[in-house]
Specification:
The chain has 253 residues and is an alpha+beta fold. It has five helices and twelve strands. A twelve-stranded antiparallel barrel has the order 1-2-3-4-5-6-7-8-9-10-11-12. The longest helix has 15 residues. The N terminus is likely disordered.
Length: 253
């Protein structure tokens, strides 16, 4: 299920797939329909002791100003240019399952979020900046994420994309995801914890995208994410530095 994925693992794979799809000027400018599937190896939640292997859909649709995708959600571009796209829409914000959290902490269900994002290209450098306000579910607050990448083309078929990213979270989000209330502390035996906002995590990843044919592409992404600030100090965080990996296949119509 989608909500079992960590937000960072999810964002890394979706950003990498999107950047690989949009690495050429033709892809950025034209309508496109890209669908496929991915297998993700990632922590059950950020800071979890256990890892999970899960399937995930790869979707990147664009028709005029309208888009639908696994990363940006469903919405429309307010600015739709060759070097800058600015869009607004609705996306999914993942939480975690009861069985994955420490006993007594309980489930944090994911929900919808209103998102505005910008994708930019300057020479060989591609950047993505997004802000999400949680609208439903057990989570609350807001997130701001930023990614910087440089697609490299060793051959006509192979694209390598090293990237770095970071996420800022306000106190409401950090408390709803990493906090421990008095009732949770009594049920779990963990100390009560009320974190504040700030830089939540930083990560680095490397994606390899290989175009088998004009329509079929294979992808592989490896990422390492490090929790920072108050999120890192949460009693539910067993490991602040965690790897994740993704294998994907996509088809462009």
């Amino acid at each position: 299920m989608i909500h079992a994925l960590t937000p960072v693992a999810l964002l890394c794979v979706l950003t990498a797939v999107s950047l690989a799809t949009k690495a050429s000027a033709q892809d950025r400018a034209s309508d496109r329909t890209v669908v496929g599937g991915a297998v993700i190896y990632a922590p059950a939640y950020q800071g979890a002791e256990d890892y999970r292997v899960l399937p995930f859909p790869v979707i990147d649709l664009k028709y005029g100003r309208f888009f639908a995708g696994s990363r940006r959600g469903i919405g429309a571009n307010l600015v739709d240019g060759d070097t800058v796209d600015v869009g607004a829409g609705v996306t999914f914000v993942p939480g975690y399952r009861r069985r994955d959290a420490p006993t007594g902490v309980g489930r944090v269900s994911g929900g919808a979020g209103a998102r505005i994002s910008a994708d930019m290209k300057a020479g060989m450098v591609m950047a993505s900046l997004g802000a999400t306000k949680v609208l439903s579910g057990d989570l609350d607050g807001a997130l701001i994420d930023a990614t910087l990448a440089m697609p490299l083309r060793p051959s006509d078929r192979l694209t390598l994309i090293p990237s770095v990213s970071t996420t800022w979270a306000d106190g409401a989000y950090t408390r709803s995801y990493f906090g421990i209330s008095a009732s949770q502390a009594a049920a779990s035996g963990l100390p009560a914890y009320r974190p504040g906002g700030g830089i939540k995590d930083v990560s680095a990843s490397l994606t390899a995208s290989y175009r088998l044919t004009d329509r079929v592409s294979l992808g592989a992404t490896g990422s390492v994410t490090k929790l920072t600030g108050d999120a890192r100090k949460s009693p539910i965080v067993f490991d602040p530095t965690q790897p994740s990996a993704v294998l994907s296949v996509s088809y462009r119509f």
